[in-house]
Amino acid sequence: MNNTEIRRSVIGITMGDPAGNGPELCVQALLHKAIYEECRPLIVGDANVIEKAAVLLGHPELTVHRVDSVEQAAFTWGIIDVYHLDLVDLARFEYGKVSAMCGRAAFECVRKVIELALDDEVDATCTNALNKEAMNLALAPEGMHFDGHTEIYAHYTHTEKYTMLLAHHDLRVVHVSTHCSLREACDRVEKQRVLDVIHIADSACRSFGIPRPRIAVAGLNPHAGENGLFGREELDEIIPAIRAAQDEGLCVDGPVPPDSLFPKALGGWYDIVVAMYHDQGHIPLKTVGFVYDREKQAWKAVEGVNITLGLPIIRTSVDHGTGFDQAGKGTSNELSLLNAIQYAVTMARNRNIKE
Asked: What is the pTM of this model?
């Protein structure tokens, strides 16, 4: 292994639900030679499914290299290294269909890539989308249930304090709560949780190379509560958390009314936004990241990255679903996966520099 190879981080990339567009996105992303100049990518999945995707995309010349250890990987453009997990029976396989077999396959890929990261076999992990219904269909007989990737990572890394970050270029959003009802989300707006997420936001930006992050905290209620006129969550929970963070020397502004906060963030006022609940953060980011071409009736761009913060390992992800409606058609857009890989590379480099 030469010095150039040593400087390139190993990025473990899951194939996602094989019935979705994840396998196609893996192949499309690794057709970009620049990826191999930035890192050493390793697909964690079923080699048979990746081979099928390569042929479907019109690239039968690609070599799908099956490995059962990271050391066996070639990490060379034109060769797709796959940490092969024999998970999919192609005779029973259908694109765009929810199945326990595919749900199990997606789950096992995630579990394996976490294991590789915890064992320092890969420097960072990057996930394609899984289908929650299919995964939990497979796990139900074992009495297991996960809401999604974030909860799987938290469970297998024994992490209690974590949150989701979404990023589209320099617009970054973290969340006080994500996958719960709106009623429960309001109840989760508590001083300590808001303060914890502010800390995670600050740490995340530093991992991206931002030395003094500017953090904006959104209000929960319209107009950030108008001093208690539209609710007391800002007065009782959010403002005390902001003041505690400011007392620690963090650069925090808020609570900012959400309808004006995101235009400011897009304008460069802040490095990261703390949103109070799932849709408050997701809607503005996906509005700028997902671009649909009306004339061509196709997605022009599907950009954005999903990052789980607070973990002992690095996890980035595409910021879209399994694309069951596009799977097997060769029309999916790999931009989000490319963005996720680049974020994983940046975070791995900065972590290595600190160490």
From this structure: 0.84
Confidence band, pLDDT 50/70/90 cuts, at residue 129? very high
User: What secondary structure letter does DSSP report for 17?
Assistant: -
Structure-block tokens of residue 343: 């974020």
- Taking residues 84-92, what's their average pLDDT? 95
pLDDT in tens, 91-125: 999 999 999 999 999 999 999 999 999 999 999 99
CA dist., res. 44 & res. 182, Å (int): 35
Residue 212 belongs to what domain range? 160-308
Measured from the Cβ of residue 127, the count of other Cβ atoms closer than 10 Å reads 30
Q: CATH number for the domain including 242?
A: 3.40.718.10
What does 202-226 look like in DSSP terms, one character per residue? HHHHHHTT-SS-EEEEE-SSGGGGT
Is the backbone peptide bond immediately before 213 cis, with ω within 30 degrees of 0? no
- Rounded Cα distance, 315 and 326, in Å: 25
Per the structure, how many domains does the chain have?
A: 2
Which amino acid would we find at residue 78?
Answer: G
CA atoms within 13 A on the CB side of 349: 13
Q: Do both 200 and 87 map to the same domain?
A: no
Q: Is the peptide bond before 255 cis (omega within 30 degrees of 0)?
A: yes
Is 63 in contact with 95 (CB distance < 8 Å)? no
Contact 54, 62 (CB under 8 A): yes
Amino acid at 309: L
